[in-house]
Amino acid sequence: MKFSRGRNFLFRIPEGKEFLSAVNEFAKKHNVLIGTISAIGTLKNPKIGYFEEEKGQYKVIELEGTYELVSALGNISIKDDEPFAHIHVSLGDKEGKLFGGHLIEGEVFVAEVYIQELLGEPLIRKPRENGLALWDAEEE
Amino acid sequence: MKFSRGRNFLFRIPEGKEFLSAVNEFAKKHNVLIGTISAIGTLKNPKIGYFEEEKGQYKVIELEGTYELVSALGNISIKDDEPFAHIHVSLGDKEGKLFGGHLIEGEVFVAEVYIQELLGEPLIRKPRENGLALWDAEEE
Amino acid sequence: MKFSRGRNFLFRIPEGKEFLSAVNEFAKKHNVLIGTISAIGTLKNPKIGYFEEEKGQYKVIELEGTYELVSALGNISIKDDEPFAHIHVSLGDKEGKLFGGHLIEGEVFVAEVYIQELLGEPLIRKPRENGLALWDAEEE
Known about the structure:
With 140 residues, the first copy, chain A, is mainly beta. Chain A has one helix and eight strands, in the order E-H-E-E-E-E-E-E-E. Chain A is globular. Chains A and C meet through strand 1, strand 2, strand 4 and strand 6 of A and strand 1, strand 2, strand 4, strand 5 and strand 6 of C. Chains A, B, C: Residues 3-138 form the PPC domain.
């Protein structure tokens, strides 16, 4: 779907906040209904998910300690009538080894976030039979 | 090179499609000649490449099974007179371990893609002696 | 903080340059004071950092050889009165295994870089007690 451009936000989430809920609160407060997100920083005790198709749910992977947030990439759209951020993250440990998946939660040590608002027709996540909430796929 | 901004597309590629060719078809259909791409989702049986300079070609790494598409990052420019997407990906397995490189192919389970069109002078990939097709480098 | 959009640059850094200083020089030359960065390519002998909170400094991880630059993600703001790029990278080895963290340096084999300028009030990094130079956090 095609969108026009809205506002651009570049900001730091305060230390101690939970990253994903802070992004969702930011979107709600500023009324960002559609958008893209990218971020870097450092997260503590992040939990990530791997979607198990056969079970129709995420397997939760709990990482202990402090990780470089090497990349957070995702988007904002509407789910259950509210702005909802879907974010995947890549996380680096002390040896530089990377772990990652679907972000479930993570405590912010540092988070530098870019949100780019998009404007247009509502982009809505709808529950699917496979357990995921997805936009309609782009028609051919 | 400096570009002005064109259209913004945020969309989901249908399940079952091959990711890279779907992006290339989208660019062709919508006449996106220059742009940037980012995406997250889930891919099946992705193939990634590692460029071996001494051989002047990519070593192909075939990953089996389903992987979280933790990041897809890249750009669109012209190669052989057509829009061409160059994309690198980071992929997470069931344990949260990450693999990645130059995307060769991957079957879409979920793919949420953002394409930002850029407008300006043609940006063209030209074959190089080292085996790669590259833009002219930015002058000092 | 909210910003308006400035210029858009998509370009290739010449082979042999050091990636991070090339980005900083580009920002300085073109007077990009605020912005976002993303890039893909291939880097040689990259050095990455993992921030050790208890020591208030980065542990340096030196990677030898050639790595796919799977993702470079970051931003530009002002530090010590000059444009300063803060970039995190994900790097893939010959087997597709990923390493990453805070980019310290890396020699460019290929680097395709997108810089999006933002315009607005100065965004400034200030030294913190924890050893990092950070923007003021977004107010609630």
